[in-house]
Specification:
The structure is a homodimer. Chain A is α/β, with parallel strands linked by helices. The first copy, chain A, is built from 12 helices and 17 strands. In chain A, α1 crosses α5 (about 130-145). The longest helix of chain A has 17 residues, at about 100-115. The relative contact order of chain A is 0.14. At the A-B interface, β15, β16, β17 and α12 of A face β15, β16, β17 and α12 of B. β17 of chain A pairs parallel with β15 of chain B.
Amino acid sequence: MSGIEDFHAVIPAGGSGTRLWPLSRTGRPKFLVDVLGTGRSLLQGTVDRLLPLTGPDRILVVTGQAHRDEVVRQLPELDGSGTEGAAEQVLAEPSPRDSMAAIGLAAAVLAQRHGPSTVLGSFAADHVIAGQDVFERTVTEAVAAARVGYLVTVGIKATGPSTAFGYVAAGDDLGVAGAPSARHVTGFTEKPDADTAWTYLATGRYSWNAGMFVASAGVLLDHLHTQLPALHDGLREIAALWDTPGRAAALETVWPTLTRIAIDHAIAEPVAATGGVAVVPGGFDWDDIGDFESLATLLGAGDPDGPGGEPPRSATLGDDALVLRLDAPDAFVVTGDRAVTVVGLDEAVVVDTPDALLVTTRAHAQQVKNAVDAWRERGATRLL
Amino acid sequence: MSGIEDFHAVIPAGGSGTRLWPLSRTGRPKFLVDVLGTGRSLLQGTVDRLLPLTGPDRILVVTGQAHRDEVVRQLPELDGSGTEGAAEQVLAEPSPRDSMAAIGLAAAVLAQRHGPSTVLGSFAADHVIAGQDVFERTVTEAVAAARVGYLVTVGIKATGPSTAFGYVAAGDDLGVAGAPSARHVTGFTEKPDADTAWTYLATGRYSWNAGMFVASAGVLLDHLHTQLPALHDGLREIAALWDTPGRAAALETVWPTLTRIAIDHAIAEPVAATGGVAVVPGGFDWDDIGDFESLATLLGAGDPDGPGGEPPRSATLGDDALVLRLDAPDAFVVTGDRAVTVVGLDEAVVVDTPDALLVTTRAHAQQVKNAVDAWRERGATRLL
């Protein structure tokens, strides 16, 4: 048994990533794509990062039925050398019911299989983290705090006044053995406006909410039982039958009735109000690669032309030998199998795929999802 | 015999059109491409326009050896129902020697075949003309002036103070029967600066030099003999052997020695100085499709969104159903077989071909040739 004893990683692998279209598609969303050009998809990168903490047996992926086979194919590590076989480590949802149902299902299945004291940590399938050592130390502290009954979140050190993320407000030290940097959470906030974000940054008390939660299965389910008893009971009912022939019937009858709600709203916020949530600060680099501006900045981090303090502006995902920039030094290009020439465009984004080409600018990265909507309205489902 | 009696059209089909890259390539230059989306290449359009004036037998195309087979394939009209077979209507140059050698070769071959009094008109293979009736009347007048010994040019009515073209300055009426609008040419000018172009426009005496020349073969060759005797003699030597087994040997030994010079500099300018050049004003619409800005304007002419008096700004060459513009109403897109999405770019130009993609703006249309140079420097000859 390697890693942290009796600790399971849960990876909710959902979301379509439409702002990374056409790199990300409905049938092949962001987490299944090698958007960093490392040779590993974001999901594979997430598993690589968690394996030292859990070993191959204690990872559960919760994904949509449509992506189940590809998830299994991408993760041969989960081949069932332990108690669960690969099939039992990839939980397929018949339909998306948001993050509380996905993580709650995993918690209920783990409680069923291993008892309520087993600790789980939930980590998105499509985020990027650099700094493995710091990440492991952070999770280890979070598990220690979870073992004494806290719902623990990992707060990402804010490197700027971002308006793209929610924030976690930290209060007093938790004072738990094995979790020296853990603090009480006084509250969660939605994405702030710019002035508020500057205020948060100035206090030093706020960190970014990256949606990572660590708790014992029993504590998490108890909170859910208090806040949303019907959702709790439904998930428990499905979990009781998960490893039996009754699973399919339970999913068919119960799953469609489950409340769609994010884990933040379902339990993190109300439990924080009563002092039950802790935060462990995560000093590692983190990014949720929300759009092409974010991806370009991440990939361009090694750009020697980027002046100090400014985000680097030029990047290629794919084969840079296929790209020619003339009077367009800041172009971000995702190459396919063709030569791409960009002439005289400032901050261009060009994404070349076999059936769809996107041309935009970094400033318009957020609008890419509107293009996906527009193609859908035109009935071009093959492009989505 | 249809058209104008004893009148031959000569079509110099050369030039690479690098400012229309990657639509136009070294191996498939602009004149071989259907850049207007009409189903006909520019060369085919040129032949279509000339056939009413000449019939299929009296058209000669002068092109590079590399393009000869494709020219013959595109022009089944020239299949030799008359005196010349298709092969004899497409003259292949072993290497490019500029327009005087190309047109002079055609003149010398026509003089050899039909005598010096036969009249020829030279029309570029890659220009666009609208207004067939006016075009035919203009050429008919030019032929009448050519029969009495003038080297005749067709002057395009200047619709604005263009700095992209040379100008022809008109003097007194010519007073030749059958050519009522013909005037003496007092001179040719290079492309002017903007102030000078405005002056030209104000006088009403200047028209654009579209490089169309009409003359009898004998007059043209006599002028050439006076101005460049060695070039004249070389072309005569090749022409004498053209329709014999000696052609190849003559081309091999003589062609490489021929002076490279444009017909304007070689004869039009010096002969104008001594009163031997006439101009017939051409009131038809004309465009040389110099770059994507020019092509986009031409293709967008039917755009109902273009405000009156302003050049229309949105156009598609290809399948408009493949194009999505979001916050990019002025984008010009050349489609291939993929969906093209343009988001938030002003005046974008996107050219999608199977092996090369170009992204630029209409304002940078002239710089496209620099991209071709840059790919050449990188050794990417397959893209040129």
